[in-house]
């Protein structure tokens, strides 16, 4: 028997980690190599490989100082706003006994399911200084000029926070749910008020999750495209992504300058990851220990009605108002605030539904969403464990590398991927496989951040106890770590699904004639048809995604139900 | 940069044809006159003539189109082709010309050949692509209905599959009648400051307007225009969408196709054709070499430049390109291209050479 055991070879954690971590690092570095190469190209901008190398493209970036400033301004404002919203809403729904909490929770994440383009279009219809519905009504009531202007930097940041920052709620909410309420209850029993408990107990304990979310959201904002495109262009307001889009869309495409812009954001991302790791390595944020607990809400008394109102107002502003605005606009020939019978039409829907390409693109997007979520959660769950639990040498360095895709706007990353996978000997260029690889690569930071936020809260001694009892590392991973990680894994899977379906930057360039996805088609519609037609397409996309999500939520609910219930 | 086409070696027939064409040069007076160089075998199919082997094209079963027009516009174009040839599937990639050109050049430099026909909205990348040997040399029999000026030089690389042109447009409820623009210089009226739009430097049409009006009114014209703080957009639909809603008062690059589209929707807008003329630019269509479906590509090319395809280009509201065929019928609006005074560059080499200067100046004007 001992002889047989010696021959039944099972790969140890080091081997598996080396293989998976190494593969992930390669997938990230492979396109980045091409990007850095392009950023250093100083010869013919179209020549591949470059004819000459130099730093001229980076020196040239000083010309775009205003654009960098614009980017930082809207990104920081939007991040602060998104994190505040995410934490407050996450706390309300995780820790307070708000009426209808169960029903509200899935609704609060809805803005993330609305594509940023759709949100930007809706708010453009609502708040453009001249044609915006709200301003039309304002003037009809005797007002002068405009009541709001959504095309200002703060207007853009508002829209970005609502639709791209809503991921903060999901990420912070997952962390709050994994926290033992006994700690807060102890604080209150010792005489601290609710606010003091939230600031002194809850906030410090969820700090890794909040910081992770803040870093992720800021990076997301730095790479944000749709809101700045729809709302910034009318005001001659460019951010790095919209400027890069123009640079690569012009003839001849100025890839080297665009790549230099993208590469320059690496430094920002490195600094943020470094700060994050410094903070989480200083303290203990463990809230899940061997002691059993059951998440429960605190009684906040009559305050619960005010908190409910906060949630409902948020839902109105971030979901109901934009969707109704787009629905109203999509039913008109020429959208105006004041209805006219002869202006109503269903033509925008019949046109959208008649396009074969739109139908196949929608199906492809849903397939890719499910595949990215399924494979992504396994891959990213393992990578999170590798980074934070394995204690293998170089695990910290892997995190830095895997955060790269977040530092580069996806449009630029897509150019790296385009060049990289074009020359790769496997024939996946122009197929859905390439899009799947692209999504798994660019969403590594999203999945890892979401899962690691929860992982940091799990006491390492739980795994060590299992090890002491003789459990192998694979068995420990499967029976201890994974079940405890379940909320984080499910949140990550849902986020990955949504992020894939609404992905734009990477898809624009990597789509092939037979591998199209839906969001670029909607942007394209905005360019080439009309707001009304685009609104119809965006609503159809949302409807399809909503149906898919209902299914996924049902599956997730079954997965999170404790056995026996 | 591109590998040389390897499936069309110089045959004895081609060599003789070239010799005959060379000998006939002084007699014909038009070195690019295509009648003398038509394909050896042509077939009448539906109501046009093709040099493609239709049976082979149907056997290939597919044509892949890379284009710059909108999704719905391309879908309408390809759907019309598929109706005529139901055995040939259509697929496409849509990107703006700059990004599209970048994609196709990147693909070809990696020896990936996915596309059969390429349509660009700007002649500069088309000439560049021709210089790099990207086009298949194919003389459509339908070129007989086109003036040589509307084909590549030498003929065979690409053709002008349609023309778009631009005047000025304004929102009638936002611009007082006495302020309504009538000539190009009126777009400099300070009353329109912060309320005027044009396209971004990604646009071939914008390059044409910049070039032609600079020729007419001098180099300072556009610097004066910069003082208006114009807003720049990528596509004509966006310009008219905003104009129709009153977000902009005047559109300085109002393409006729965009105007008719929104006028039909009931927008309170007006189109002005300045007496000095309307800058115009062609859409360029060509068969790409090493096409995966070469016969289907040729068939598509013939169809597109024939009256059959041209009626789709002219009459689909989202396309609305004027046809340059000698026998072109009027457009959807009842007007023919000849009803407008169009302004084309007289020296295409100079036009192409001006592209870098245009991009630099225009980016500055648009605040980029």
Structure description:
The complex is a heterodimer of chains A (565) and B (368). Chain A has one domain: Orthogonal Bundle (MetI-like fold). Residues 1-7 of chain A have low confidence and may be disordered. In chain A, helix 2 (13-39) runs antiparallel to helix 16 (255-282), helix 10 packs antiparallel against helix 13 (207-222) and helix 13 (207-222) packs antiparallel against helix 16. Helix content of chain A is 72%, strand content 0%. By secondary structure, chain A is mainly α. In chain B, strands 3, 4, 5, 6, 7, 8, 9, 10, 11 and 12 form a ten-stranded mixed beta sheet that branches. In chain B, strands 1-2 form a two-stranded antiparallel ribbon. Residues 1-37 of chain B have low confidence and may be disordered. Chain B has two domains: 29-163 and 281-332, D-Maltodextrin-Binding Protein, domain 2 (3-Layer(aba) Sandwich); 165-279 and 342-365, 3-Layer(aba) Sandwich (D-Maltodextrin-Binding Protein, domain 2), CATH 3.40.190. In chain B, 56% of the residues are buried. In chain B, helix 2 packs across helix 10 (294-305), helix 8 crosses helix 9 and helix 10 (294-305) packs across helix 11 (307-315). The longest helix of chain B has 17 residues, at 12-28. Chain B has 13 helices and twelve strands. In chain B, 37% of the residues lie in helices and 17% in strands. Chain B has 368 residues and is α/β, with parallel strands linked by helices. In chain B, a hairpin with a 2-residue loop joins strand 1 and strand 2. Chain B has helices at 12-28, 54-60, 71-84, 97-109, 123-131, 204-217, 221-226, 236-245, 256-264, 294-305, 307-315, 348-353, 355-365, and strands spanning 43-45, 48-50, 62-67, 89-94, 117-120, 159-171, 196-199, 231-233, 250-255, 269-272, 278-287, 342-343. At the A-B interface, helix 15, helix 19, helix 22 and helix 28 of A face helix 3, strand 4, helix 4, helix 5 and strand 8 of B.
């Amino acid at each position: 028997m001992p002889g047989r055991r010696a021959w039944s070879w099972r790969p140890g954690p080091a081997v598996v980690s080396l293989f998976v971590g190494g593969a992930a690092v390669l997938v990230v570095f492979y396109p980045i190599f091409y990007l850095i190469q392009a950023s250093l190209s100083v010869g013919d901008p179209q020549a591949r490989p470059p004819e000459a190398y130099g730093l001229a493209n980076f020196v040239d970036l000083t010309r775009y100082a205003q654009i960098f400033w614009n980017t930082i301004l809207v990104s920081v404002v939007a991040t602060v706003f998104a994190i505040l919203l995410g934490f407050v809403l996450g706390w309300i729904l995780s820790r307070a006994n708000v009426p209808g909490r169960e029903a509200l929770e899935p609704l609060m994440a809805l803005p993330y399911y609305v594509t940023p383009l759709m949100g930007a279009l809706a708010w453009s219809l609502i708040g453009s200084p001249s044609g915006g519905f709200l301003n039309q009504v304002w003037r009809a009531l005797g007002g002068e000029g405009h009541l709001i202007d959504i095309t200002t930097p703060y207007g853009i940041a508002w829209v970005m926070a609502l639709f791209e920052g809503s991921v903060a709620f999901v990420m912070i909410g997952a962390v709050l749910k994994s926290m033992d309420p006994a700690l807060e209850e102890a604080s209150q029993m010792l005489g601290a008020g609710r606010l003091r408990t939230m600031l002194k107990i809850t906030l410090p304990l969820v700090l890794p999750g909040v910081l992770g979310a803040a870093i992720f959201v800021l990076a997301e904002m730095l790479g944000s495209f749709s809101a700045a495109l729809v709302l910034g262009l009318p005001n001659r307001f460019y951010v790095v992504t919209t400027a890069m889009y123009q640079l690569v869309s012009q003839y001849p495409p100025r890839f080297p300058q665009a790549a230099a812009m993208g590469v320059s954001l690496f430094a920002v991302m490195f600094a943020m990851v470094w700060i994050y790791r410094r903070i989480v390595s200083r303290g203990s944020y463990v809230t899940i220990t061997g002691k059993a607990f059951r998440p429960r809400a605190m009684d906040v008394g009559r305050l619960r009605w005010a908190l409910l109102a906060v949630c409902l107002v948020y839902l109105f502003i971030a979901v109901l108002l934009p969707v109704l605005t787009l629905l109203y606009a999509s039913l008109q020939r020429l959208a105006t605030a004041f209805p006219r019978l002869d202006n109503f039409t269903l033509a925008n829907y019949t046109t959208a539904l008649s396009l074969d390409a739109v139908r196949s693109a929608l199906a492809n997007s849903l397939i890719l969403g499910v595949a990215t979520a399924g494979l992504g959660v396994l891959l990213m769950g393992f990578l999170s464990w590798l980074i934070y639990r394995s204690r293998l040498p170089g695990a910290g360095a892997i995190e830095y590398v895997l955060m790269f895709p977040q530092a580069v706007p996806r449009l630029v990353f897509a150019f790296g991927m385009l060049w990289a996978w074009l020359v790769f000997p496997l024939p996946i260029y122009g197929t859905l496989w390439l899009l799947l690889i692209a999504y798994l690569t660019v969403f590594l930071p999203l999945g890892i951040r979401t899962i690691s936020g929860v992982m940091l809260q799990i006491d390492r001694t739980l795994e060590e106890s299992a090890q002491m009892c003789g459990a192998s590392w694979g068995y420990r991973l499967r029976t201890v770590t994974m079940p405890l990680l379940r909320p984080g894994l499910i949140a990550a899977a849902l986020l990955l699904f949504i992020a894939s379906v609404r992905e734009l930057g990477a898809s624009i360039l990597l789509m092939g004639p037979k591998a199209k996805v839906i969001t670029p088609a909607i942007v394209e519609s905005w360019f080439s048809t009309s707001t009304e037609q685009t609104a119809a397409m965006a609503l159809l996309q949302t409807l399809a995604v909503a149906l898919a999500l209902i299914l996924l939520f049902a599956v997730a609910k079954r997965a999170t139900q404790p056995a026996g219930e | 940069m591109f590998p040389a086409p390897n499936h069309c070696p110089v045959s004895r027939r081609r060599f003789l044809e070239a010799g005959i064409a060379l000998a006939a040069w002084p007699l014909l007076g038009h070195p690019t006159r295509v009648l003398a160089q038509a394909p050896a075998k042509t077939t009448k199919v539906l109501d046009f003539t093709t040099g493609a082997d239709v049976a082979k094209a149907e056997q290939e079963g597919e044509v892949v189109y890379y284009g710059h027009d909108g999704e719905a516009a391309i879908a309408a174009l390809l759907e019309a082709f598929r109706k005529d040839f139901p055995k040939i599937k259509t697929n496409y990639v849509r990107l703006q010309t700059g990004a599209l050109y970048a994609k196709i050049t990147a693909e070809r430099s990696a020896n990936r050949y996915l596309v059969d026909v390429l349509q660009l909205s700007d002649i500069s990348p088309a000439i560049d692509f021709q210089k790099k040997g990207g086009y298949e040399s194919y003389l459509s029999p339908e070129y007989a209905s086109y003036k040589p000026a509307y084909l590549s030089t030498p003929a065979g690389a690409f053709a002008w599959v349609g023309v778009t042109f631009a005047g000025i447009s304004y929102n009638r409820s936002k611009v007082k009648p006495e302020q309504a623009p009538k000539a190009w210089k009126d777009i400099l009226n300070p009353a329109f400051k912060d309320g005027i739009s044009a396209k971004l430097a990604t646009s071939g049409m914008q390059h044409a307007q910049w070039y032609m009006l600079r020729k007419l009114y001098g180099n300072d014209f556009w610097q004066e225009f910069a003082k208006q703080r114009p807003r720049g957009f990528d596509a004509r639909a966006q310009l008219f969408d905003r104009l129709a809603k009153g977000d902009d008062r005047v559109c300085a690059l109002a393409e006729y196709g965009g105007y008719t589209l929104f006028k039909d929707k009931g927008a309170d807008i007006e189109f002005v054709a300045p007496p000095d003329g309307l800058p115009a630019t062609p859409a360029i269509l060509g068969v790409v070499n090493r096409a995966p479906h070469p016969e289907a590509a040729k068939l598509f090319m013939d169809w597109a430049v024939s009256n059959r395809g041209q009626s789709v280009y002219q009459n689909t509201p989202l396309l609305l390109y004027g046809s340059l065929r000698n026998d072109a019928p009027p457009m959807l609006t009842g007007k023919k291209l000849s009803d407008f005074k169009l302004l084309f560059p007289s020296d295409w080499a100079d036009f192409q050479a001006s592209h870098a200067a245009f991009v630099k100046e225009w980016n500055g004007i648009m605040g980029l």
